[in-house]
Specification:
Layout: H1 2-21, H2 29-32, E1 38-45, E2 53-55, E3 62-64, E4 66-67, E5 72-79, E6 84-90, H3 97-111, E7 118-122, H4 141-160, E8 163-173, E9 179-180, E10 182-185, E11 202-204, E12 213-216, E13 223-231, E14 236-243, E15 255-256, H5 259-271, E16 282-287, E17 293-294, H6 309-326, E18 337-347, H7 353-366, H8 374-385, E19 391-401, E20 404-408, E21 412-413, H9 415-424, E22 429-433, E23 442-443, H10 446-451, H11 468-484
Parallel strand pairs: 4-15, 6-7, 14-16, 20-22, 21-23
Antiparallel strand pairs: 1-5, 1-8, 2-3, 5-6, 8-13, 9-17, 10-11, 10-12, 13-14, 18-19, 19-20
Helix pairs in contact: 3-4, 5-6, 7-8, 9-11
């Protein structure tokens, strides 16, 4: 009996010591093991290898002869043992669905991640290479092929770098850098629209601090939600942030730049001492619902800045807000993952015969392009839209990561839509990544359509039917309710 008790005591001591050192004890491994979250991130360079290149961001064609700072596709892969999800955010003004679909297919072949579990988006820097034809810009077809391969490779590399990880989320707040750019104006001379209708009640980007400014035509969203992953030893792997800010600008002519999206990534890495870690930390700023939001303080005006100065100021300020949220994160060793995707068919606002006759007359009077007059620019847009189909199919997604809900929109989505989705979401922290999985132009609400203004003017940048917004919003909420179960 004494020998038996001694043996029991020895085994008890071994058990306690093994537990303290986290050494597996034979026969107890199955009880102690549990699901493991793995995460990997990679920022792959998507800067063009040849210059000059045509660039988006203007109604008139322009080309860039250099890149001031590198463009990236910043990729994050999450794997909880049952589900894998990939997110890629690319420094581009907008990217067509064909490029994203091809990149997803390549990534699936290499990683096994289901195509319907990959979200790809553009940041909307206005100094990126033209991948989608809007206004008079010319698509860089060779670059699109290059971009497809680089996005896929970025996801593959992020997948290969998966390691056991912890995850957390929080929400920051920064009301200082977002302003609604659509304004009601005081009575005065009529504002001329490119269709000569004179029906607009709202003006986009009026003169800051102007005497005729009355009030903004919509709200702003100051939230800075973040999702973060780190290795089990605390080494930062990635942060995915979201902010409803169109872009900043202030880039010199003929230069490409990732705008504040890239500057945010660099600044945030310094704030958490992650700018020298290996594997490299990946900071990701995705664009929220910013179709009617920019960085101009219309109430008070602003001082003139040197090139890139405003980009650095905004990036630093928003990064500080994200960092304040980061410090409040409660880390978890695992989180449920779910993702759903669907397509819906939406109508296209095409010109009628009378409008086409008018457009052809204007272009004949204007001569050869490229055009600088708004009437001619939009006349050309009308002719292009006449070739569009009567309907288009758009891809929509919803993701659940723990308590976080993420939805995608292929449009330049108004902040009102984003706020409504946050309000009605079944998950406590929800945000929208816009310009995702393709490009389908601006998405005003029906009420904002009735007010007019640049974002509603029919063009390749704004062609969906007036009822598109409630249909997209309703579908996204249905998807969110599905992944939240």
């Amino acid at each position: 009996m004494k020998a038996v008790l001694t043996l029991v005591g020895v085994r008890l001591v071994i058990f306690i010591a093994a537990w303290a050192a986290r050494i597996p004890v034979p026969g107890l491994a199955a009880q102690e093991s549990g699901p493991v979250l793995r995460a990997g991130a990679y920022a792959i360079d998507i800067t063009p290898t040849k210059f000059p290149v045509d660039a988006n961001g203007s109604m008139r064609p322009w080309s860039a002869g250099e890149a001031h700072d590198p463009l990236h596709a910043r990729c994050l892969v999450l794997d909880n043992g049952a589900t894998k999800i990939a997110i890629a955010v690319c420094d581009s003004c907008m990217i067509p669905r064909e490029v994203f679909d091809a990149a997803k297919a390549k990534a699936q072949q290499e990683t096994g991640i289901s195509i319907d579990h990959i979200l790809c988006s553009a940041t909307h820097t206005h100094t990126g290479v033209t991948a989608t034809r809007v206004f008079q810009s010319r698509v860089e077809e060779e670059y699109c092929a290059y971009l497809t391969g680089r996005i896929a490779e970025g996801i593959v590399r992020a997948h290969a770098q998966r390691e056991p990880a912890r995850i957390g989320w929080a929400v920051g707040n920064n009301p200082r850098q977002v302003f609604n750019r659509r304004w009601y104006m005081r009575p005065g001379p009529a504002f001329v629209d490119p269709f000569d209708r004179g029906a607009d009640r709202v003006r986009t980007n009026p003169s800051a601090a102007g005497a005729r400014l009355l009030k903004p035509a919509g709200p702003v969203d100051p939230e800075v939600p973040i999702l973060a992953v780190q290795a089990l030893d605390g080494r930062p792997i990635a942060v995915l942030a979201n902010y409803a800010l169109h872009y900043v600008g202030g880039v010199p002519p003929r230069a490409l730049s990732a705008d504040y999206f890239g500057a945010f990534a660099r600044h945030f890495a310094r704030l958490i001492d992650a700018d020298q870690v290996e594997p490299a930390f990946v900071g990701i700023m995705s664009n929220g619902t910013s179709g009617d939001i920019n960085n101009i303080n219309f109430f008070e005006g602003a001082a003139r800045r040197e090139p890139f100065e405003q980009i650095r100021l905004v990036a630093a300020d928003v990064a500080e807000s994200a960092h304040a949220a980061y410090k409040r994160i409660e880390w978890r060793n695992w989180a449920p993952l779910a993702m759903r995707e669907t397509e819906i068919e939406l109508g296209v606002r095409r010109p009628n015969e009378d409008e086409l006759v008018r457009a052809k007359k204007i272009l004949k009077q204007s001569g050869e392009g490229p055009y600088h007059d708004l009437r001619a620019i939009y006349a050309l847009e009308s002719l292009d839209l006449a070739e569009y189909p009567a309907t288009v199919r758009v891809q929509l997604q919803a993701i659940r990561i723990g308590e976080v809900g993420i939805v995608s929109s292929p449009c330049e989505t108004f902040v009102e839509t984003g706020l409504a989705i946050k309000r009605d979401s079944p998950l406590p922290l929800t945000f929208t990544i816009e310009l995702a999985n393709g490009y389908n132009g601006y998405l005003p609400t029906p009420e904002q359509h009735a007010q007019g203004g640049y974002e509603t003017w029919r063009a390749k940048s704004s062609y969906l039917a007036v009822d598109a917004e409630p249909r997209i919003r309703g579908t996204l909420l249905e998807l969110l309710n599905g992944v939240a179960k």
